[in-house]
Amino acid sequence: MMRSAFVESVVVSVTFSLCWAMVGRGAPAVEGQDFVERARRIHAETIGVDSHIDTLQRVLNGKENISRRTGRGHVDLPRLRDAGMRAPFFALYVPTYYKGSEAVRRTLQLRDAMQSLLDAHPDQIELALSASDVERIAKTGKIAAVLTIESGHAIADNLAVLRMYHLLGVRSMTLTHFRNTNWADSSTDKPEHNGLTDFGREVVREMNRIGMIVDISHVSDKTFYDTLAVTSKPVIASHSSCRALTDVPRNMTDDMIKALGKNGGVIGINFGAGFLSQKEVEAARRNFAARAAVDPGLTGRALDEFATKDYLDTYSMMKPNLATIRDAVAHIDHVVKLVGVDHVGIGSDWDGISSVPAGLEDVSQMPLLTAALLERGYSEQDAKKILTGNFLRVMRQVIGR
Ligand SMILES: [Zn+2]
Known about the structure:
The chain has one domain (about 50-400): Alpha-Beta Barrel (TIM Barrel), CATH 3.20.20. The protein contains 16 helices and 9 strands.
């Protein structure tokens, strides 16, 4: 039987510690091993929420069967179980080059791909519509799938479409992606609306009313503040990191993180190298600009074929980079120093990022991140808030159960 990547990583970590022991640093070696053991236990005990993964793109575009170990990408159901990350938010990600009703069609294709997975493997995965669903499903050992839409252009400027997505089980939505919508400015496009339009404010209010979490990852700073001014519920940044450490517009400034904390919201730290390491900023900015510019001007099947190739070409191979697992810890730490431990979580962006940090190459490595937090002095209770409790709290507050 093949060893899982997690077992491999523990072996590497323990071997590394033993090497130190052999050169006369016995105490840190024992502690290092202890942190990994404790982290593994924490991941076995808690649920593990990740507020953004793009794995459905591999299901739809790559026709991959993620109920088995795929040996590709960052996530499959066995690796989620091994890692103790049982409640991922599966993104129905629609590129912005899908416009109007085409974006609705693409969203439904992704929802359908999710349904096929749910129908084929009811023993492994179940749709979660609330925090209590997440807890009930995770207890059975299954993956609790939360559905999120990326991004707001998928409602085709129509609140009826938004409400029907909610009926289909969608429980959060980013307001924009790399381009502005017709009602909200993006962080990676030219300002067009000075933040949210009046209709954008209506979208936020309607999401509050029906119990759908407003996700401000990808929006411009002005859209973020406009959203906070109108929302009556906590919001999330499902896959962003800290701009003070890595200066890209997709990350949040310290002031934004403080405002998010006051709102009761949570930022899920994005593991893309361009989000985590200042050394990767230039490459990240070029990448955002290139992604935002993609617009084939197609419709129908030709557009779907383009989207499939576009995803596979962009995300099937990881690019070399200088980020490490320590950078992910630094971003978590930065949020905690600003607003405390109740407002940070994990928003990996697995299968939607083209470069991953050393030591955090896929979801199976997650316990090593927790081990690093413990080593840095975080309590087990704090680690569980970051892994699970904070996002479940927001789900409860917005969805109502
Ligand atoms: Zn995104």
